[in-house]
Write the structure tokens for this entry.
Amino acid sequence: MKKFIVRLAAEERQQLEQMVKKGKTQAYRIKHANILLAVDANGPSLYDTAVAKAFSCHINTVGNVRQRFVEQGLEAALERKKREYPARWPILDGEKEAKLIALACSEPPAGHSRWTLNLLAEKLVELQIVESICGQTVRRTLKKTSFVPIARNVG
């Protein structure tokens, strides 16, 4: 017994068929549209195993698309499941970014005329602001914040 029964309205079916026919959207949206068309109780009403085999996906994908359609509607069923948490947490949050910028604005260490990205990274680790960080992460962060070092010896 299927727990989530998909019943497409005529306009929903037409919209999905147009999406599949045109093929001008993301591949996963087209696959989800095909799944919905195949499991429609008012249409072919195929078994999940047959649909999964036909569209080269896992049977759980078919079940999840069914569930999202019934519980959240057509748009949610066509989209991917949203992550609750990011795949990887950012190394520098707002507070740590502020410390990085303050450090970059400060005097460079003795023996250096200016801060380099690797020097900044090493200093962040030394001050125990972060556990580890590379110069490229420092670069991306400074670029994102539009940090522009001001030359001290101008004029």
